[in-house]
Design brief:
Blueprint lengths: L3 H22 L11 H27 L7 E5 L4 E6 L7 E3 L3 E2 L2 E6 L11 E4 L5 E2 L12 E4 L5 E2 L12 E3 L6 E2 L12 E3 L21 E3 L6 E2 L12 E3 L6 E2 L12 E4 L5 E2 L12 E4 L3 H6 L1 E2 L11 E4 L3
Parallel strand pairs: 2-5, 3-6, 5-7, 6-8, 7-9, 8-10, 9-11, 10-12, 13-15, 14-16, 16-18, 17-19, 18-20, 19-21
Antiparallel strand pairs: 1-2, 4-5
Length: 315
């Protein structure tokens, strides 16, 4: 009995050490495959990050990969090529290439894609102009990216593109033709050039029934005839301080417009400029009452705006 007692004590001591080691290892949970949960989560997060890093650049690059098979015409005098249409290209997401056969692509031809099912368009910086009625009636066109470099948007270039929702017109654009966005009924977000030395000609946004706000560029001394005609959801307009004239029917039928600021330099409001602006209640004029009396106001300039009052802020 005396001999076995030490042996029992040694056995108990060893058993305690073994159990302590097992408890120390217990907090690390394992899956059925023997891999720790913590390791699994770390590996999953790493795999997700790697997948995201691999996917995003490919999507961005793919968006700007030039379309293949488009038709071109050599412009001998201009030193470059014009895109004339789809050619053999069957895709509806079009990226115009910057160069063709080693020379710059400088123009998109008149009626080149008219009434097609094009869905998106990217115009590179090499292109200087988009021709008259080029994308007219492209009812599936939703996205347009015009990179800085373009100088001319000719008449009706995007007229009737009823799915177009937003567009940024770069500061390099010098000329905006008449009815460029006529009846683009989904167009809501437009960024105009910050400054211009040319007046956008008539009815640029006629029938853009979703348009709610626009900043008119500094340097535009006239809002041309019918500029916002039929923009029934237009709520506000930022007008440059050097504006001198508001054209006939410029805001015709803008029935959601409630207030507008007009600069002191204004000297002419043409016929029917605010006709049908049934919610227009306030004009904030930067000049004095005497200045306002000198502003020439043509017939029916505010017909239908029965509650309109003019507040002269220069007094």
């Amino acid at each position: 009995m005396r001999k076995t007692l030490p042996l029992l004590l040694v056995f108990v001591l060893c058993l305690s050490v073994i159990c302590g080691c097992a408890d120390a290892a217990a907090p690390e949970k394992t899956t059925a495959t023997g891999v720790s949960v913590q390791d699994t989560e770390t590996e999953t997060e790493t795999e997700t990050e790697e997948a995201t890093a691999e996917t995003e650049p490919e999507e961005t690059e793919a968006r700007y990969v030039p379309s293949e098979g488009l038709a071109f015409k050599k412009e001998r005098d201009a030193g470059g090529y014009t895109v004339t249409g789809f050619g053999k290209c069957t895709k509806m997401d079009i990226v115009i290439p910057e160069t063709y056969e080693g020379e710059p692509v400088i123009f998109i031809s008149t009626t080149g894609f008219q009434k097609s099912h094009i869905r998106s368009l990217v115009v590179p910086s090499s292109v200087k102009g988009i021709g008259m009625e080029t994308f007219k009636g492209c009812k599936d066109l939703k996205s347009v990216v015009i990179l800085p470099g373009a100088e001319y948007l000719y008449s009706r270039a995007f007229s009737g593109c009823t799915s177009l929702q937003s567009i940024v017109i770069p500061d390099t654009v010098k000329i905006i033709g008449g009815r460029v966005f006529e009846n683009c009924s989904s167009l809501k977000d437009v960024r105009m050039p910050k400054k211009t030395d040319r007046i956008p000609v008539g009815e640029v946004f006629r029938g853009c029934t979703s348009l709610e706000h626009l900043d008119i560029p500094e340097g535009a001394y006239e809002i041309s005839d019918g500029f916002f005609k039929g923009c029934e959801n237009l709520k506000s307009v930022t007008i440059p301080s050097d504006l001198e004239e508001i054209g006939g029917e410029a805001f015709f039928g803008c029935k959601s417009l409630t207030e507008i600021d007009l600069p002191k330099d204004l000297w002419m409001i043409n016929s029917n400029a605010f006709t049908g602006c049934t919610s227009l209640e306030r004009i904030n004029y930067a000049g004095t009452s005497a200045d306002w009396k000198k502003v020439e106001k043509m017939a029916r300039w505010k017909e239908g705006a029965d509650n309109l009052k003019v507040y002269c802020l220069g007094n």
